[in-house]
Amino acid sequence: MHARLQSQLEACFPQGTVPTGRWDDFLAAINASYFNADAERTALLQAIPDLLIRLDANGRILAVTFGTGDDYLRQQTLLPGQRIEESFLRDVAAEFTKALQQVLEGRPADPQEFNLGSVAIYEARFFPIKEGEAFAVIRNISARRGAEERLRETSSLQQSILDSTTDGILVMNLAGQVVSFNRRFAQMWGLREEKLAAKSESDLLEVVQSMLTNPAAFIDRVRELQTDLTAESCDLLRFLDGRIVERYSAPQIMDGLPIGRVWIFRDITERLMAEEALRAEEERFRLVTQATRDAIYDWNMESGTIWRSEGFIPIYGDAETIGTDNTWWEQQLHPDDRHRVSQSLAEALVRREQIWAQQYRFRRADKTYATLSDRGYLIYNENGQPHRMVGAIADISESKKLEAQYLQSQKMEAVGQLAGGVAHDFNNLLTVIIGNLSLLQLEGGSATDQAAATAECLKAAKRAANLTRQLLTFSRREKVMLKPIDLNEIVSEMTKMVQRLVGEHIQIQASVSPGNLMVRADAGMLEQLVMNLVVNARDAMPRGGRLQIQTEAVTLDAKVNHDLHPQARSGSFVHLKVSDNGTGISPENLKHIFEPFFTTKESGKGTGLGLATVFGIVRQHDGWIEVESELNQGTTMHVYLPRLAEAGTALVAVPKASQPLVGGAESILIAEDDEQVRLWMQHVLQRAGYKVHAVGTGQAAIEYFNRKQGKVDLLITDMIMPGGITGRDLKQMLSVSRPDLKYLYCSGYTEEQLMASGAEGDEALFLEKPLELDAFLQRIRERLDG
Description:
Blueprint: H1 3-12, H2 23-47, E1 51-56, E2 61-65, H3 71-74, H4 93-104, E3 112-116, E4 120-130, E5 133-140, H5 142-164, E6 168-173, E7 178-181, H6 183-189, H7 193-196, H8 201-209, H9 215-227, E8 233-238, E9 244-254, E10 257-267, H10 269-291, E11 295-300, E12 306-308, H11 312-316, H12 326-332, H13 335-350, E13 355-363, E14 369-380, E15 386-395, H14 397-441, H15 447-474, E16 483-486, H16 487-502, E17 506-511, E18 518-521, H17 523-539, E19 545-556, E20 571-580, H18 587-590, H19 610-620, E21 624-630, E22 634-642, E23 667-671, H20 675-687, E24 691-695, H21 698-707, E25 714-718, H22 727-737, E26 742-747, H23 751-756, E27 766-768, H24 773-785
Parallel strand pairs: 17-19, 23-24, 23-25, 25-26, 26-27
Antiparallel strand pairs: 1-2, 1-5, 3-4, 4-5, 6-7, 6-10, 8-9, 9-10, 11-12, 11-15, 13-14, 14-15, 16-18, 19-20, 20-22, 21-22
């Protein structure tokens, strides 16, 4: 008898049998028992979070129990009698039917994974119930899959970190089995990764014994740690191949209990070798400090303390007050040098440079300043932070004085050579001017003769002005102004001057290309370029020789001409070639010739700035320079400058036909201390119709301006005047009552010098002497009308 039926029978009838006439009661009891059993089963099934579907062999739904764990499933409709392909599971009906047939035939069926809703992942498992029927259990496994993916990512990250470190890492459990290791550990011990995971502790110890100089000590330490599961350890291992490895071990703890041990192996061979080399270097450093006359220092950049050798005493002058920290050194720097030196050192540290060098002025104990050359070697710690700087300081005060004397003597030598030629040229020009003016004083001359004499005077005066401009260029007082210039004219004009500069023992051959070679350049800078190249060639021919200057127009293709001209660009260029047959330049020195202060000349004969200046001028004009040289054969300098697309016209004075003076009727105040210039300006302006008042000082100009109550249309003032009031001062004083007062500065100095003295740099407000009549009147008219 069924157990549930027997228990119900005994509950109703203790005697164990059903009395006659009580069968109705018995049947009611049986029904109650099975009803209770169904209720219990239904409650149990509803408490399960999964969706349970009872299916027949045809995939038809017999019964459905929606679980409690998934809101999406509970919102769906599944009705007894429906087939799977007629429900919301229609997309996976084929897979469900296949799995259903497998379990009904007694074969296992793989779980079916599928997506429902937006991103949810579900799993369906099938279990047979009885012949022709089975359960489909559907569960939401999104959270499980997410956890598995996160675990996989974490494991991958952990292994990547382990493999990226330079240390070898091994993890073993308490049973002596390998739990984890990284690639570096396998490489360090010469083990194949695929076989390492299967090795036990005893297998690894066998490998150790064949590689170490003292395997017994290694094994003894392992045994000690096996008896003390919470101990940490650190020691050195020496390999037979010369490697030295630092071994560190710590327990793996979980929930406060040791579950294994982590071993870390770090190859410190190179570090120990570096430390040994450093100790040797320190010993060598100690010996050097005793032998050199320079001041040696050792600066601990972490603590800020500095050790200085006894060589510092002669520099500073008082051993008792020499500081031992970096702050003292900074305080002794000249105020004008302190920021530059400190910033230079800071930048070197940021870039992690090894060498730092500077020159600066350093205050001695007697309050005077010495010029020092400081060169330090920077040392960084294992973290890349500045740790130490060891350096040497040399007192170069005397050499700086000698260098300044050499520079001055060389400049005076050049000026002296130019002075003779300039004086000769000026005498010729003065002869022309004086002679023609004398002719004008004679009576009886025709108007044609007088006009010719006047033209010759003007021509000679303009040549004198051009000569003055060349001198200003040589002294670097001429302003930089780019404009179309014919290189042929520059070379032609310079040829006569450079002949006097190089001397009679050198033959100059100048050959210029036909036509114009127009470039956009500053005339003064091109003249200086030619001058410096000529001087360099002259110095290479102390016993005389031949100097050739040539110009030509060239068209280059950067690809085709790359071998001959590595720096070439495609386009049209002007080529200036300066050649000599002098001593030539060695290959070792050739790569340094454009460096500032590099010179192969004997002491006192050169500064090393000539070719550096040439290089700078060429680069400033968007060109390049090439050098050919052989020892005892000579040198050729090739300068390439971009040629202007339009030839234009040469910048030479062209005689103009007499034209009416450009004038007006406005009131003009002139402040000019040179009487002849002042009278000429006054005469010219009055003839042009202006009302002019001219004075010789700034104070006189102020007094006149006040008397006229500011009724002046234009102020023309020299920049440098006696009496303490400059042209700029005068303009500012008069502008207080007349902010709209128009003005023009006038000076024999260049605009660049006037800007240095505080004047505005507006070219339109500046008249440069010597003044030409037409240009002078035109500029005044433009200023008044502007």
